[in-house]
């Protein structure tokens, strides 16, 4: 029994010793030599090793994984890094005039075995040690939605306090939800704004240390009515039905759309006017004239009006006269029968033709009779001359 107790006690002692040894090793493995310096000072990292093993010693920067030296040879070509052999079992790596970029963990290695680690902390006396998240201290306008007249100027502002200071970016998102960066800085100024400048404006503040903050403004650019009659010049016969369409866009929307003729509002019983909304800015008015009469052919005016003013567009309704077509009299017709052309004459035409033929024939007979009489007289005259001439 006593032997068993001794064996048990020895076993507990061994377990405690092993745990202690492992803890000591882990502490040594995680131990770093902390070297602190201000910007501009020099830092020396000394690595001690067994003699005659200098060629197996190297310095490494853990942050970047760069091997700075191997043995007594420096691998990097940086003017502020020097490697010096202090003794047969000591190498010194010197960083001259350090900056904050030199901060980090450096390791001295013997082959793959870590000999020493150096944690370098660089301080700048000018560095701000207190961080403060961004907060809006002032912005303009105070309302989330604001309106500006067309061709006016627009001012938006976002003032933010933070440590370190923030960068402010302005983003514009139009009504088609297309966004783009338009400005950097606290104040946004736009001159001669147009309806296309309407939309959402957002200022975003960030200092890369804290969560970004933003402020949004919805801007509406107001403008007077823009009137367009969609028909061109209309030409029509009387007693037909005519449709005239007029589109009016404005912001705010028009209060009224009027149809005028000779500067007088239309009150004809056969004219009907209908208005319909297209979107948040545009409306359409349709004028329908049923069985238009000749007195209603004239110039018409479509007029839109809102709080910023009014605009008009015009159209002419022109009458087309009905021309009576008279069918010409036809005296002859040509009819093609079996490849031959026959001429058909009307009765009156035949009568005229017969009269012409009769007159021509009578003239011919008269001419022939007079010629015979002349020959007869000439023959008698020749006989008389022969009779009176002496033998």
From TrEMBL:
The keyword Glycoprotein does not apply. Keywords: Membrane, Transmembrane, Transmembrane helix. Pfam families: Ig_3 (PF13927), V-set (PF07686). SMART domains: IG, IGc2. This is Ig-like domain-containing protein. Residues 134-214, 225-321 form the Ig-like domain. CDD domains: Ig (cd00096). It comes from the Eukaryota. The chain crosses the membrane at residues 6-26. The keyword Membrane applies. InterPro entries: Ig-like_dom, Ig-like_dom_sf, Ig-like_fold, Ig_sub, Ig_sub2, Ig_V-set.
């Amino acid at each position: 029994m006593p032997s068993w107790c001794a064996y048990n006690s020895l076993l507990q002692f061994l377990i405690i010793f092993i745990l202690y040894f492992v803890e000591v090793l882990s502490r040594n493995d995680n131990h770093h030599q902390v070297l602190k310096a201000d910007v501009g000072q020099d830092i020396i990292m000394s690595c001690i090793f067994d003699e005659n093993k200098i060629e197996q010693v190297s310095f490494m920067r853990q942050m970047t994984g760069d091997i700075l030296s191997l043995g007594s040879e420096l691998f990097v070509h940086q003017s502020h890094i020097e490697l010096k052999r202090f003794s047969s079992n000591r190498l010194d790596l010197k960083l001259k005039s350090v900056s904050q970029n030199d901060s980090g963990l450096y390791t001295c290695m013997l082959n793959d075995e870590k000999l020493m680690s150096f944690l370098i902390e660089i301080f700048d006396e000018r560095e701000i040690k207190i961080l403060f998240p961004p907060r809006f201290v002032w912005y303009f306008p105070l309302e989330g939605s604001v309106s500006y007249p067309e061709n006016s100027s627009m001012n938006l502002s976002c003032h933010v306090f933070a440590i370190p200071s923030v960068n402010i970016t302005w983003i514009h998102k139009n009504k088609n939800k297309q966004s783009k960066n338009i400005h950097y800085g606290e104040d946004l100024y736009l001159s001669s704004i147009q309806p296309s400048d309407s939309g959402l404006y957002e200022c975003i503040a960030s200092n890369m240390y804290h969560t970004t903050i933003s402020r949004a403004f919805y801007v509406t650019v107001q403008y007077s009515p823009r009137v367009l009659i969609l028909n061109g010049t209309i030409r029509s016969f009387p007693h037909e039905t005519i449709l005239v369409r007029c589109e009016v866009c404005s912001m705010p929307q028009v209060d009224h759309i009027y149809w005028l003729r000779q500067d007088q509002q239309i009150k004809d019983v056969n004219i009907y006017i209908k208005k319909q909304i297209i979107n948040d800015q545009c409306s359409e008015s349709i004028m329908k004239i049923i069985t238009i009469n000749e007195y209603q052919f004239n110039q018409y005016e479509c007029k839109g009006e809102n709080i910023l003013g009014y605009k008009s567009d015009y159209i002419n309704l022109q009458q087309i006269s009905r021309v009576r077509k008279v069918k010409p009299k036809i005296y002859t017709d040509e009819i093609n029968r079996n490849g031959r052309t026959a001429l058909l004459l009307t009765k009156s035409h035949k009568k005229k033709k017969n009269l012409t033929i009769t007159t021509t024939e009578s003239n011919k007979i008269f001419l022939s009779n007079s010629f015979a009489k002349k020959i007869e007289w000439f023959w008698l005259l020749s006989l008389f001359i022969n009779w009176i001439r002496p033998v």
